[in-house]
Amino acid sequence: MAQCLTTPVFIGCTPATSSPLIDGDVVNVGDIRTVNGTSNFSNITVNGGQLIICGNLTLSNLTVNSGTIFINTGGTLNCNGGSNVILNSGTNFYNNGTSIFSAHFILNANVTVINNGVLSSLFNYIIIQGLNTYLVNNNQLTSAGFMAWIPSSPACLCLGDGSATTTNYFFNKTTNSVSVPIGRACLNVRQYASNDNVVTAASELDVCVPSGISYNGLPNWGMANVINNCSGCSVVLPVELVLFDGYIIDRKAFLNWKTISETNNCSYKVERSIDGIVFNVVGHVNGAINSMSPINYQIIDNTIESNTIYYYRLKQEDCDGYYSYSNTIYLYFEESNFDVEFIKTTTIDQTIEIINDDLIQNITVLNSLGQFIFKESSAKSIDIASAADGVFYVYILTKNGKTKTYKILKNDVK
């Protein structure tokens, strides 16, 4: 594999012919079900159709016979009850948000799982037990245990550049089950490893193990760079990135990211694409070299056209030539040509009153420099009395994926 498998282009939170998911739903071939807002359901079956999660979905008893599940950036899937979550043949699971499993997450044959966000099974196992099944981790994956079981294919666990995979117990029964096609990745095994076969042929894999780890037989890490007495992937990876997002205001894209630690980090480049495949640099800033304190960064892309989807990713470059990529986000700018109004302002108490809040997915207020003043998924009013005088923007993201921006001059609100 020249690179890990990539996530297909997202079709949107409310595509044509879609309908909202309901309790006890069966998503058959040709069906598209969507989740916007917050829902708590049980006994959901995906039987060849598509389930798109843009809001927060809590599930018990999820059955996946085949089909596609897509968790969008900012969306959450929380499987907190019922039996194991088993992905059967013909299933695609794409996570750009957060997926949390309170049962074993089992991948049978002919399954693809791509994690660009946070995938967690803290008290249970993630198990690959079928041929032609691939689990791709491009960001953060955490589990109580991981198994490359019988049968599973070589490179069944593909780790993207800069990714962190953490597990307490690691079981490997497949030769070269772990691949790192591009850059470097970290595998942190905290307590125990049973490697019947060589784990990897990739010297780009850093295996982080503590002093108290125990083995069943030989370590068998293969060509990996084993770091002993290691406390976690944050020690190994050059940058601990906790945020990368963006907003379009007044035909400008504000790309923001935050790190909580940096090691040997020279620079960042923001890359943009209109097809999700070919990326070009639109801006760069210097890194902090070494830092153990939170740092906020921002780049502004001034070349935005309306009615266009833009894909952005962050390239982090080490001082010694290595580099890594963040997950890819997308921004969509649409001229505000729809009639619904979402705010009204008052001069008496200097507040912004939110109207039609049932249509809103997210509210963001920024000043003229693109700096956050307020961000929340829901609000009835926003106090602007303490904000500095001048121009600022209220950015509304609706539940159907549309955007609307209000430009406000403080002390001249109407």
Number of domains: 3
Radius of gyration: 23 Å
Largest sheet: 21 strands, parallel
**Beta-strand content estimate:** over 45%
Distance between the termini: 59 Å
Described by the principal axes of the CA atoms, the overall outline is globular
Which structural category do the helix and sheet elements fall into?
mainly beta
Tally the beta strands.
35
How would you sum up this structure, described in words?
By secondary structure, this protein is an all-beta fold. The protein has one helix and 35 strands. The protein has one helix at 233-236, and strands spanning 19-20, 26-28, 32-35, 38-53, 56-71, 76-81, 85-87, 91-95, 98-101, 105-107, 111-115, 118-128, 134-137, 140-148, 157-159, 164-172, 178-179, 185-195, 205-208, 214-215, 225-227, 239-249, 252-273, 280-291, 295-301, 308-318, 323-325, 329-333, 343-345, 351-354, 360-367, 372-376, 381-383, 391-398, 403-409. The strands form four sheets. It has a 21-stranded parallel sheet that branches. Strands 22, 23, 24, 25, 26, 27 and 28 form a seven-stranded antiparallel sheet that branches. A four-stranded antiparallel sheet has the order 32-31-34-35, with no helix packed on it. The chain is globular. The model has no long low-confidence stretch (mean pLDDT 86).
